[in-house]
Design goal:
The protein is α/β, with parallel strands linked by helices and about 400 residues long. Among the domains are: about 5-70, 2-Layer Sandwich (Double Stranded RNA Binding Domain); about 90-170, Arc Repressor Mutant, subunit A, CATH 1.10.10; about 225-335, Orthogonal Bundle (Endonuclease III, domain 1). The protein has helices at about 35-45, 55-70, 90-100, 110-115, 120-130, 160-175, 190-200, 200-210, 225-235, 240-250, 260-265, 270-275, 280-295, 300-305, 310-315, 325-335, 345-355, 360-370, 375-395, and strands at about 5-10, 15-20, 25-30, 50, 105, 140-145. It has a four-stranded mixed β-sheet with strand order 3-2-1-4. A two-stranded parallel sheet has the order 5-6. Strand 2 and strand 3 (about 25-30) form a beta hairpin. The longest helix is centred in the last third of the chain and has 21 residues, at about 375-395. It starts with a strand and ends in a 6-residue tail after the last helix. The relative contact order is 0.08.
């Protein structure tokens, strides 16, 4: 019987897997598309293994991994790894890569030079590709030449690599991560929930059905990047949009800090279209970049001093940015308390479902929403969940989706 054990554990980027033996951790698997695939990939990598609760030292390593993936500072360099099955050259490379601190990076060539193997950049790349320890040997901190992002073998490819780099950079420099992190709301969520329950008994019944308010704020390092991402995501499903945005960022050196307005303005149309951007989105990004370079786009400090309507008025001057896009920024990026996106399909569908109004109009939603001021953001979140519930019930009844 094998002495290798494994377990799966939840993180902000999905369910990961970890395997260990008497000599330490033998494998770490980042999330695949499905939990069964994550488990299968881990077992394929480490061989015969038995599921088991993690001992104290493995639990501590898991806690450190979860902290890192939550955008917190976490030093994993001292976690014990069992490299007995790793080729000697790879072992040397992994030891060097473990010494790269969060928020920093080296190129394949720089790692090769540190290993006294100049000219072995390609071999370093192969070692990164075969890395069985993933985050514990942080191969995402190793770039190709000239600051290009290079490849990444985990599920999601360069999008996953950029996600990890963004998280680490935010923890290292004290700024907000692009994709992750529970930012502070601009209000007390618990008070807002209690307020809405008292203000609208019908909404209170919906809230009881849905459960706790657990909306997450997705902070961004700049309004420019948040709007650039919003433009890319328009009218696309999340997976396709994430792939295009990752390819866009990967065009530029230090991709986890990109794109900047200057980079977009310098890049050729062919280069930008090559990542999958439509002509309309290319023109929108160009306009956003031009306005940002000319100081028309407020920075985070300025925008925090502006009211919602002033932000909407300023940002909707950008080509391709409409009121709905700015309302989503106000809710999901800035955590503003009193936003009710009247033109949002999900909000209106949830309102029709929750208030039993099959032909509910925008005017009816706006009128009811006055009861929810100044916490219409929280009400909107519950209406989105109500829309999800409506779809589930439609499917259960075999009805076509509206």
């Amino acid at each position: 019987m094998s002495d290798i054990r494994f377990t799966l554990f939840d993180t902000p980027i999905g369910r990961c897997g970890i395997a260990w033996g008497p000599g330490g951790i033998v494998g770490l698997q980042l999330p695949e598309a499905r939990e069964a695939q994550t488990r299968a990939k881990l077992v394929e990598r480490v061989g015969e293994a038995e599921a088991a609760p993690p001992p104290v030292e493995i639990r501590q390593a898991i806690d450190g991994i979860v902290a890192l993936l939550s955008g917190e500072t976490s030093d994993l360099a001292r976690v014990a790894l069992d490299m007995s099955g790793v080729p000697p050259f790879h072992r040397r490379i992994y030891e060097l890569v473990r010494a790269i601190p969060p928020g920093a990076s080296l190129s394949y060539g720089e790692v090769a030079a540190k290993a006294d193997a100049p000219g072995a950049a390609r071999a370093v790349g192969q070692a990164m590709k075969r890395n069985p320890f993933s985050i514990l040997v942080p191969c995402h901190r190793v770039f190709a030449a000239n600051g290009k992002i290079g490849g990444y073998s985990a599920h999601g490819g360069i999008a996953t690599k950029l996600r990890l780099l963004s998280l680490e950079a935010s923890a290292a420099n004290g700024t907000a991560a692009l994709f992750e992190g529970d930012g502070a709301f601009g209000f007390d969520p618990n008070f807002a929930v209690d307020y809405l329950r008292d203000a609208d008994p019908a909404l209170a019944r919906l809230m009881e059905t849905i459960g706790p308010f657990d909306m997450r704020i997705r902070r961004a390092p700049s309004i420019f990047i948040a709007l650039a991402e919003a433009i890319v995501y328009q009218q696309l499903n999340g997976k396709a949009a994430a792939a295009i945005f990752a390819r866009l960022r990967a065009l530029f050196p230090r991709a986890h800090e990109a794109p900047t307005a200057a980079q977009i303005l310098r890049a050729s149309d062919a280069k930008l279209r090559g990542v999958g951007l439509s002509q309309a989105k290319l023109l929108a990004l160009r306009d956003l970049a031009r306005r940002s370079a000319e100081g028309e786009i407020p920075d985070l400090a300025e925008i925090h001093g502006m009211d919602n309507e002033a932000i909407i008025e300023r940002l909707t001057t950008v080509r391709g940015i409409g009121r709905w896009t700015v309302e989503m920024l106000l809710i999901s990026r800035l955590g503003r308390p009193d936003v009710l996106p009247l033109d949002d399909f999900g909000v209106r569908k949830g309102f029709s479902f929750a208030f039993k109004k099959p032909t509910a109009t925008k005017a009816e939603l706006e009128k009811r929403g006055r009861r929810w001021q100044p916490y219409r953001t929280v009400a909107s979140w519950y209406l989105w969940r109500a829309a999800d519930l409506a779809v589930q019930r439609e499917r259960a009844k075999g009805q076509p989706r509206a």
